Amino acid sequence: xxxxxxxxxxxxxxxxxxxxxxxxxxxxxxxxxxxxxxxxxxxxxxxxxxxxxxxxxxxxxxxxxxxxxxxxxxxxxxxxxxxxxxxxxxxxxxxxxxxxxxxxxxxxxxxxxxxxxxxxxxxxxxxxxxxxxxxxxxxxxxxxxxxxxxxxxxxxxxxxxxxxxxxxxxxxxxxxxxxxxxxxxxxxxxxxxxxxxxxxxxxxxxxxxxxxxxxxxx
Length: 218
Description:
Radius of gyration: 17 Å
Structural class: alpha/beta
Distance between the termini: 12 Å
Strand order of the largest sheet: 5-6-7
Mean pLDDT: 83
Shape: globular
Strand content: 15-25%
Order of helices and strands: HHHHEHEEEHEHEHEH
Number of strands: 7
Number of helices: 9
Low-confidence stretches: 206-214
């Protein structure tokens, strides 16, 4: 990636942190990621996962982990469901001792990414579809299940379960959660300025990881 592309990605990440996602921008992002991954070895991306997770793990809310582990201790399996790559999601689940993960799958040929999707994009309705398939496979009753999210884009997933929970919700999800009487959890009390600084730091970290993909590929 060029410096200009990195700067553009940082700006988009900042807008996402402050305003949430849109379908159009997410589709564009997925195409861009596919183009960057074309020809990259799957193993090379997998080897980047520890470096990426080293930047992600310190940002996890310990309160949310306690809630997740309480579910697990009560006999409920817990899964990560994300639009991120399946490879990254699986490693995160292993590190956190979750029961599994569902992420976006990219097409692979001879151990290399083709740049094309290998399955449904786990975003909006795609994420709800993914958890319905998971529930059928694992014999999970979604009406007795919980789902947690901070984004309006996850409404299909939240509405697919009996216990939807909004966590640090964006403005639209917060409004809907209040209207529908859903539980709302808030773990952050940072001001807008600090949120912007944090978003910029995350964007820089992600940019560095993508640049590392390019270096490994070369």
